[in-house]
Amino acid sequence: MEKWSLMTITVLLALTVRWAVSLGSYSGAGKPPMYGDYEAQRHWQEITYNLPIRQWYFNTSDNNLLYWGLDYPPLTAYHSFVCAYIAKLINPDWVALHTSRGYESQPHKLFMRTTVFVADLLVYVPAVILYCFSLKETSAKKKASTCALCILLYPGLILIDHGHFQYPLSLGLALWAVLCLSHDWDLLGSVAFCLALNYKQMELYHSLPFFCYLLGKCFKKGLKGKGLVLLAKLAGTVLLSFAACWLPFGTDVEQIMQVLRRLFPIDRGLFEACMFSSPTHCSDKVANIWCSLSVLIKIKNVISPRTQLKLSFAVTFLSLLPACIKLTVQPSLRGFKFALVSCALSFFLFSFQVHEKSILLVSVPVCLIINEIPFMATWFLLVSTFSLLPLLLKDELLLPYAVTTPAFLAVCLASFSILEKTSAEDLQLKAFSLSLKGYVSCFKSFPRIARSLFLLSLSLMGILSVLSAAVPPPQSLPDLFPVAVAVVSCLHFLLFLVYFNVVILWDSRNRGQKKMS
């Protein structure tokens, strides 16, 4: 009973923070003609409710794709339709065709915020709670409520979902998939992940770890016996899940192709949201390698779009290959969770058409291992939130950022004593350090070095946050601070990618038979 009481308090606190953040501004508020992501979600409700399914993804007189045209998979469209149906019952003006464009009012804002809140409460929050209760408690591990508090107070997700405006359903479904796999409910986990992928195509960031882990389990069981049966069941489950999601579009090949063209707009080039054609003319700043390099090298002017696509694919594939091979050969839940982090980070850093919000696809898996490597996980989650700063400032979310980020750090310090968890063993680097014994002597002073780098990183992020918010940039470099935020964050992420891959590759422990570690 005590643990449930603590968990109830934890959830109530997390929900209170979410609701408080939702009272502020949102993406594109009062900024015509395109407004922002809030208007995009409202417009999708307008389109899905008023137009037949066959027109949802096509450019017509009633559906101008240049004005927030649907570019997410069918499950997002179905969700928009359900929200629109409820909105129509409350106030038909909210989803009226054409005339509702740019609609803004306090009642409508309350409705839209409530839809996100309910989605969070029904999908994401329960998955976090059950995941934390599934963690095996030992003397070295914290209680479920403590772990849940840190995960649910992660500021990046709160600020984007309840501030900027975004639904947490794909991440919540992916978390349910992880939870199912941790209990050997492989078919249910496959269904949950298929639903996540059919809600947002960015869940492809997590697809290879799911595939490699399940394939590795089939190999381990033997492809001439139980493994072959499991593989057939998994294949059938995936096919049926996709067929159910795409059924309304499956009668027409052109419908399917048009949806795919909307989901994967390869003709836009390597990056669109991060227009670093020059360091003084940028829109949204993404902390990945291509946008950061474009400060020095005008990639879009030097390389053709098709070559950009091939280059991006090659670098992404090579960067995630080691973790995927290791997971396939030695499938374990621990390796699976770390591979989710490593592969998602590779996609974020090197893949095609990345948005700054995509860092959340890395952050949520990092949350899942915060009990194992609290120091590095907390550090990463702070950097990921910092990388969103230009977007948050544009949405007038400085105050929520300034409150939730230090609060999250304080909770992690109190819950995990992260500054005391900096030894090579605490950082899961003991095997790596032993392999370098005799070559590198710095591992003796590694805890002190790690703490110093962490404090230096915090100081740098704090200074850039203050400068970005309070100091006007030089006229000749109007985007100086956003570019600095992106480059500094990118450098952090590259080092984190190396770290996570080292942990994966030097881990010889096979925990495949254990539950959550």
From TrEMBL:
It is a multi-pass membrane protein. It is found in: Endoplasmic reticulum membrane. GO terms for cellular component: endoplasmic reticulum membrane. The keyword 4Fe-4S does not apply. Residues 1-22 form the signal peptide. Its main location: endoplasmic reticulum. Pfam families: Alg6_Alg8. Its EC number is 2.4.1.-. GO terms for molecular function: dolichyl pyrophosphate Man9GlcNAc2 alpha-1,3-glucosyltransferase activity. It comes from the Eukaryota. It catalyses: an alpha-D-Man-(1->2)-alpha-D-Man-(1->2)-alpha-D-Man-(1->3)-[alpha-D-Man-(1->2)-alpha-D-Man-(1->3)-[alpha-D-Man-(1->2)-alpha-D-Man-(1->6)]-alpha-D-Man-(1->6)]-beta-D-Man-(1->4)-beta-D-GlcNAc-(1->4)-alpha-D-GlcNAc-diphospho-di-trans,poly-cis-dolichol + a di-trans,poly-cis-dolichyl beta-D-glucosyl phosphate = an alpha-D-Glc-(1->3)-alpha-D-Man-(1->2)-alpha-D-Man-(1->2)-alpha-D-Man-(1->3)-[alpha-D-Man-(1->2)-alpha-D-Man-(1->3)-[alpha-D-Man-(1->2)-alpha-D-Man-(1->6)]-alpha-D-Man-(1->6)]-beta-D-Man-(1->4)-beta-D-GlcNAc-(1->4)-alpha-D-GlcNAc-diphospho-di-trans,poly-cis-dolichol + a di-trans,poly-cis-dolichyl phosphate + H(+). Pathway: Protein modification; protein glycosylation. The chain crosses the membrane at residues 110-133, 145-167, 173-197, 227-249, 335-352, 359-386, 398-419, 453-471, 483-506. Keywords: Endoplasmic reticulum, Glycosyltransferase, Membrane, Signal, Transferase, Transmembrane, Transmembrane helix. Dolichyl pyrophosphate Man9GlcNAc2 alpha-1,3-glucosyltransferase that operates in the biosynthetic pathway of dolichol-linked oligosaccharides, the glycan precursors employed in protein asparagine (N)-glycosylation. The assembly of dolichol-linked oligosaccharides begins on the cytosolic side of the endoplasmic reticulum membrane and finishes in its lumen. The sequential addition of sugars to dolichol pyrophosphate produces dolichol-linked oligosaccharides containing fourteen sugars, including two GlcNAcs, nine mannoses and three glucoses. Belongs to the ALG6/ALG8 glucosyltransferase family. This is Alpha-1,3-glucosyltransferase. It comes from Pteruthius melanotis.
